[in-house]
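User: Batch of two.

Assistant: Item 1 of 2:
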Amino acid sequence: MSRNLIEEGILDDHRRLRDLDRIELEEEWPPAEWESPEAFLGESLEELAERPSRWKSIKSTTRDLFETLLLTLLIFLLIRTLVQNFRIEGSSMEPTLHAGQYLIVNKFTYRWLHPPQRGDIVVFEYPRAPNRDFIKRVIGLPGEKVEIRQGRVYINDQPLEEPYLPKLGSYSWGPQVVGEDEYFVLGDNRNNSSDSHTWGMLPAENIVGKAWISYWPPQHWGLIQNSHYSFASPE
């Protein structure tokens, strides 16, 4: 009898230990967490299915951004090929143009349409310092003989009418024949201009473009007017 009681007691102890193990196991791994794949993975199946589409959306956005930046760069390079901004410094082109005036320079006319014409106001790289840009007016063309007598310009011995000048310069120069692919340029403010009468002919390759539009300050807004010349009667 006592032996049976002992065996039953041992069995009860085993049952209690087994129940304790089951309780601990259930606490460590709650059955609710295993009820569905969503509970185990922490995401719904719909969310898992959306992962590839999210990645595609990110890739699409990145591609669109890259294409926009590339297009912007191409437009910028195209604009830089056709036009250029220029700020006037100094008084060499007064009274036609003034210090602090901002211009748009037309770069495509001379490149694809026609060479510079007499009277054009051009922006160019200064031959003695190519990192500096100057602005002057074209006076003498390739092959022409240019001479300045007491401020009056002569082209092939014919006096040139220049109605835009407030007064003639006070110097003489030449005569000299303009070389091939060269131009003779002068500032409108003849006595206060570093130009061809001081440093020589302008190589055509140094010309950046034609002064086209003045856009700042507002009172000077508009197209740059280039002169059409006539020759005066010989003196």
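Item 2 of 2:
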Amino acid sequence: QEPPGEEAAEKEPDVAKPEGKEDPPSPPEASAEPTRPQAAACPVGGRPGAVCGECGKSFSHKSALAKHQKIHRGERPHGCADCGKSFVQRSDLTVHRRVHTGERPYACADCGRRFSVSSLLLTHRRTHAPGDGNTDANRCPQCGRGFADPAALERHRKSHLGAKPYECGACGKAFAWSSHLERHRRVHTGEKPFRCGQCGRAFAWSSHLERHRRRPHRGEKPFQCGVCGKGFAWSSHYDRHRLTHTGERPFPCAHCGKRFGRSSHRNRHQRSHAR
């Protein structure tokens, strides 16, 4: 008689199952597809979290997740009209545009120096903080400003003495402040970081851009006469034109009192008294 086969040898004896009970279901087979991060559990009293399917980063609001996902898709919908550089968020564009406008909305309460971003202001304010608890040792005796270390105080005191320790390597001109030297260097480098968003013209200094913006661009005539409809590029030209309708003569001669509608006519008349 042949010995029982392997199947018969490995066969386990039947065991009676308790009535009313069944075998527990077998665990599901592992999926070959990678699992994506699951949404974070909802905190008590809060909103369900949102998780990025690309990197697993979690956010408290779906709107924040939507903004974040633009990074993975390469979307940069907010473009700078001055230089064309684009950004994921509008707030980043707002900060960037200060490069062109020269806007510095963050002012130091101690010295008045202004900055374009709040982080630079926070870094700067540490120079006014007392150093090692010895406030008097790093305080300027002339203006009372405090500094974080003796070196910062020494640099500041030179401004009271008329010293100009920051010298331009190109022309030798010296300045009391390093920021003034940096601004001066644009004369030599030709750098013009402040650009007009309307015409594209660039300027080395923000003050020049602001002055340019106050002037009308070519072909613009924003000042229109309500009487005859004639347009003018300059408000001063518009004011002078209005006198032709009102008959007003606001420029009197200092010698005889005769009045004129234009200052140039008055000046020409006054020269006749000097002959």
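The domain at 223-273 is CATH 3.30.160.60 (Double Stranded RNA Binding Domain).
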